[in-house]
Amino acid sequence: MAKKAINPIKSLKIPQIIILSAKVCAFVSKNLATKFAAKIFTTPIKHKVPKREFEMDSKSLQQVLQVPAINKKITVYHYGQSERKILLVHGWSGRGTQLFKIADELLKQRYSTISFDAPAHGKSEGSTTIMSEFIASILEIDKQFGPFEIAIGHSLGGMSVLNAIKDGLKINKAIIIGSGDIVQDILDEFISKLMLNKEFSERLRIFFEDKYKLKMDDFSAYRAAEKVKIPVLVIHDNDDPEVLVKAGIHIHQNLENGSLFLTDGLGHRKILGNQNVIKKILEFIKN
């Protein structure tokens, strides 16, 4: 059974009704507020597939895969026919088709891609998930459909790729885009977004560590990076409002064989479709 880890939710704007509910819970009971925060923290938003992703969605061979380590089913997307395969991993509240522009360019370079809707995301079952379920999904996909030459992960997907490599994923290179880094920093920001007292960040950490019997920092990206020996390209935007650029810089500093590519003005999601970013990815893969 795979170790469980809390899921670093990205700093999307939290609806006022949730902020108000958190404050009411905190007024009634600190324990109640902690449990409420934990529920929100592990519940992604399921978005409809946008029109820009329709082509990849319609042209992919899709199948449901059982992941025994977590006893959950996920939807897997096979895009292209080449035996040279690249794994794509979306971020929190994302989808298996979210990296479609990157996937389209990889097909032109005679690669195929395999991606998936993580548990509680897209077409996959469930309403809550945690980072270790992303990692377990990656390792099961590798077992069933690998080997992969390269893995590309965005945001939480970047953290998950690094952790999967640490846990045994065998690939030649990895690319992480807008990846989160230190789990405690992500918790601190989440509690701030909920407009709760900072003490709830510590309470939330203790709650997860007690529940899952783990140390949260063990899943921080920089920790995994310390054990990754293959070449890794770290891409991050200087103006990313959701995951500050210091995360990418810190991850890069802890890689043995890392490259850092910083952009400007692309934020957290536009970076996935930028032609200069895609060009850099292709150069890294070819070299």
From TrEMBL:
Gene3D superfamilies: alpha/beta hydrolase. Pfam families: Abhydrolase_6. GO terms for molecular function: hydrolase activity. Residues 86-179 form the AB hydrolase-1 domain. Keywords: Hydrolase. This is Alpha/beta fold hydrolase. It comes from Flavobacterium quisquiliarum.
